[in-house]
Amino acid sequence: MSVPQTVAEVLSKHVVLEVESIDRMYLNVYVPQLQAVEGTLKFIRIHRGHKVASTRMVEPITREFVGSIERFAKDNQIPLIPFEKGQRKDDFAKQQRKNFHKREGVVFIGKAQEKCTVYRTEKRRNPKTKRTYPWIVKSTTLVNHYYFYCIDEDFGPFFLKFCSYFPYNAKLCLNGHEYLKQQLEQKGITYQALENGILSCEDPQALQALCDRLSEEKIDALLHKWLRRLPHPFAPRDRQAGYRYQLSILQLELSLTQVLDQPVSGRIFFEDVIRENLDIGRPKQVQLIFDRWVTKATPGPFRTRVITDGVIPSLHIDYKGTRIKQYHKEGRALRTETTINNTYDFYIGKNLRNLPALRRIGIQANRRLRIIKGRPFEVGFECQPKLYRREHPL
């Protein structure tokens, strides 16, 4: 069997499945009115009716919230497990899921001390009367966080992490490929899985259509479905007054997976990719990938890095806070991942409703990275970037 010698030959002749999908999403879960000191004062003084503007007034909420988590774990026989310092939470959760055989539910609750932004009360002195009074300020401290590791019948594994201290911000972490696997199983479509992806599928068109249907509405519905089931820090009267959780995008990964028909050629192929892309991190190349005008004022650095984890090399390209990673996945596929760590890099807000615009940017960046030495590869679609478009709000 002859081994393909060029990237162009492999991409044009040996890709048997191509999947574009949301990969991992890490989202902020927060109550908008409580993210500023003024909103917190309003919550304590006006909504809750306390005369003193002090975080001591919300301590009963904290005690009740922590108590409700412990009761929830005990009543439902859910393990409440403290994480050890330095422990890899994802690896531990993976082991715990092996012993969970329900279609849906909470696998376990993890507990860890982590630093976060909270409110605290400090004493201030009136310069005229010399009398002291309490004042609320933002601060950072170590507090307990509770990780609810769950399995959803539509989304598969995910976790929801709550800070146990006011204003009880949370994080939601989900995986688009796990969502995809759940949807394929529900529809009876036969597929073969990669560790974090799809290796083969009897209906590739239906597969891609399912990827495209993962929307902000479905993600928001997932959050509120589980907020109704899990212990909630805010009472019904708080929620009726508008103190409800919303979502914003903290980190978004978008992936392009190209499965090869000849696994034996994959390592040689990827080494060829690295050689041909060593200059791809330069400003003039980065502006092609992201379709953005790069100037001296654009935050850098601009670079290409080849990182080896064990014996597996990966190619890394940076643009502001955004990262592109390309590597040979499990000896079977070329995986390209664009990770957006700051949506403002593209003049787009963090609210979840901006997911479609961010999705387009990530998918287009993955496609354009295949422009090697200035030539687009035709692999199922046309790849023709517009050159030198200035950055502007989308």
Account of the protein in words:
The chain is α+β, with helices and mostly antiparallel strands and 394 residues long. The protein has two domains: 217 residues, no CATH class; 137 residues, no CATH class. The chain contains eleven helices and 13 strands. The protein has an eleven-stranded mixed β-sheet with strand order 2-3-4-5-6-1-9-13-12-11-10, sandwiched between helices. Strands 7-8 form a two-stranded antiparallel sheet. A hairpin with a 2-residue loop joins strand 11 and strand 12. It is elongated, with a radius of gyration of 24 Å. It starts with 6 loop residues before the first helix and ends in a 26-residue tail after the last helix.
Shape: elongated
Q: Report, as a whole number of angstroms, the end-to-end distance.
A: 49 Å
Number of helices: 11
pLDDT averaged residue by residue: 82
